[in-house]
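Recall that a protein's primary structure is simply its ordered list of amino acids. Everything else, from secondary elements to tertiary packing, is in principle encoded there. The following example makes that idea concrete.
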Amino acid sequence: MSFIKLSLQNMLRRKLRTSVTLTGVAVAVAALFSLLAFQRGYQTGMRDELDRLGAHVLVVPKGCPYDAASTALHGASWPCYLKYAYLEQVRKTRGVSVAAPVFMNALYEANGNQTVYLGINDDIRMVKRAWSIEGSLPVKTGDILLGAAAAKSLHVQRGQEFDLPGLEGAKGRVCGLLATTQGADDNFLYMPLADAQRLFNRQGQLTHILVRLQDPNSLEDVVGALRACEAGMDMNIVPLTHLFRTIQSMVNSTRLLLGCIALVALLVAGAGVSNTVLMAVTERTREIGVMRSVGASMGDIFRLIWMETVQICLLGGVVGVAVALVGAQSLEGWLRNRLPFAPTGTLIHPEVSIMVACLAGAALLGSLAGLLPAWRASRLSPVEAIRAT
């Protein structure tokens, strides 16, 4: 305990120099912590999105599959549409268990808020198996199934009639309430498919089809069969597992680059710590000589200087983790605007294991950075050290 107290006192001798060194370690550890927390959060979010969607394949109009997947999951207006006749061809494809037609349209208010309407039929229940509904699916004209967040925002309850937001003169009756899904489904208003097509003047059209397979292992065969069918040239067949894997690969490439930057930052911080402690050893040469003269062994001197280095890095690691936690929300907002596909859930997912790993890394950095200055200090000759000016 006396060694710890003495090393802490030595750290505080040059407060400015120690603070600058500590800041370098803190920045490096904060970058590493944010990177690891982002990786964990993004992977978890991607898996949750796929589970919530419930489909193995997404059939969409021709266009960018990334935009289509994001639109289908998060809700927006579609630039183009599928013919309703294509639905039958999808259903007849060998290996397809369920093909649920969907018509989605978003209406925007002056303040920027949006209301997303989805036209669905009974098939949606076979895809969204995790749904828990209080009431029933919308099957009659005027029926509306509300997501949990939408019901809260509109202040309506089951059985109540209300004006449909953004649709002047249109009314709906709440036939059911969808339990919280922790995803975008909570914000949607669901109505019979025919109602949605009529209200938005898109009779005989769909925005996308959610496809669930009889055997997920036959994904490649089913995708090939869908692309080879009569309407295959007019549809974009998006295997969601492949799409998410591609997006994950893109993110992993960026993560690798950021990881290299974080590693370089850690090495630079370690070099800075080692240099700072070497300077401190030079300034305390006579003090070290006196300690050796009164009985301190080479091991005692080595342990004192080494412990001082570890403490600087460990304290910098604590500060870095704290800064990363405080700035996690701002960082998440910045990332969400730049990622090709951002899951609905939390992107920065800090965990105790990540904190422990970062602090252990900081301690290891201090252990390595402290070897040279500790060795130099322990090798000082007591007589020569005392004579030094």
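The chain has two domains: 2-48+251-387, 54-245. DSSP finds 15 helices and twelve strands in the chain.
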